[in-house]
Design brief:
The complex is a heterodimer. Chain A is of the alpha/beta class. Chain A has 6 helices and 6 strands. Helices cover 37% and strands 18% of the residues of chain A. Chain A has a 6-stranded mixed sheet, with helices on both faces. Chain B is of the alpha/beta class. Classes of the chains: A alpha/beta, B alpha/beta.
């Protein structure tokens, strides 16, 4: 698989199918905060397979995530995401720090945050929930299981749960 | 069963629901799921807090691993209960799934503002209701790492 730089991973999935529901025509913006290019690619691919009109933007550290959410600098024109997929172990600003900052913000706190982490430490999960992570999903080591986990996240958060 | 969760014991679910029929349906779907769980039902917000505090008839209640919380209830509504839970130093980490017939945007925003973990609208159709509960069971009991109570 040829890896692309992060700046090329933003996808605008513009396909609108005939007979699609109103819900499917509405674009869903997802921010993925992930420093592993391989995992980011897998996530992008799995989410692109879904039936919805999903735009996925990827940033590779916590400070960029906050700049994106605050629409600063190069992210000035970005829309507020409907869902955030957040790794914990990130350079510059880790996932817990990102979570703490956005969950204290009056507007940003509403955005559901799914923590996806390879951490096995119970304390990492407890800290995330204490900081009001919406849910924590351990990253499976096996690629197929990882893909299935992403598919189930997509199903629940984009088809079942209501988002603000 | 998700053995990553909770050392193999049943997942304790607190169901806060004033409608007996919906409570029965939800309980039945959860109990028939793949992951071992025990559903504890209370009928309103005040009883939910009594359960969490282990007061009165709930003195022996286990700490819940997951809370399914209706919005419109007598005595104390779901948003009020949610606010108390999410401001508590220990309870705040318990995932709270709002399960409600309301699809009003303001209710959704209010729930997420108070740190609801997610919000699911109850379908009116019974089959869709069952499917929604199964989706909750599939995601929250199998995929999600719940905090150990």
């Amino acid at each position: 698989m040829i890896l692309q730089p992060f700046e090329n991973l933003s996808l605008a999935h513009k396909g609108v199918r005939r007979m699609s529901s109103v819900r499917e025509r509405i674009r869903i913006d997802i921010l993925l905060v992930e420093d592993s290019p391989d995992e980011a690619h897998l996530m992008v691919r799995k989410l692109q397979e879904g039936s919805l009109n999903v735009r996925l933007d990827v940033v590779d550290d916590g400070e960029k995530a906050m700049a994106y959410l605050r629409r600063q600098g190069e992210y000035a024109g970005k829309s507020q995401p409907d869902l955030i997929l957040l790794d914990l172990h990130l350079p510059r600003m880790n996932g817990h720090e990102v979570l703490a900052e956005l969950k204290q913000d009056e507007i940003l706190r509403r955005i559901p945050v799914v923590i996806m982490t390879s951490s096995t430490k119970e304390q990492d999960f407890l800290d995330a929930y204490d900081l009001h992570a919406n849910c924590c999903v351990p990253k499976p080591a096996d690629l197929d299981e990882y893909a299935r986990a992403v598919a189930r996240i997509e199903h629940f958060w984009l088809h079942i749960a209501r988002r603000p | 069963m998700s053995l990553m969760n909770l050392g193999g014991r049943p997942i304790e679910i607190l169901l806060v629901e004033d409608d007996a029929e919906e409570a029965a349906m939800t309980t039945e779907v959860l109990r028939s799921g793949r992951v071992r769980n025990r559903v504890h039902r209370v009928e309103d917000g005040e009883e939910a807090l009594a359960f969490l505090r282990r007061q009165g008839r709930h003195a022996a209640a286990p700490p819940p691993d997951l809370i399914l919380l209706d919005l419109n209830m007598p005595r104390m509504n779901g948003l009020e209960v949610l606010a108390v839970i999410k401001q508590h130093p220990v309870w705040k980490r318990i995932p709270v799934v709002m399960m409600t017939a309301s699809d009003k945007e303001q209710d959704i925003i209010s729930a997420y503002d108070r740190h609801a973990n997610c919000y699911v609208t109850k379908p009116l159709d019974m089959e869709q209701f069952i499917a929604a509960v199964r989706s909750i069971e599939d995601f929250w009991l199998s995929i999600v790492r719940l905090p150990a109570a």
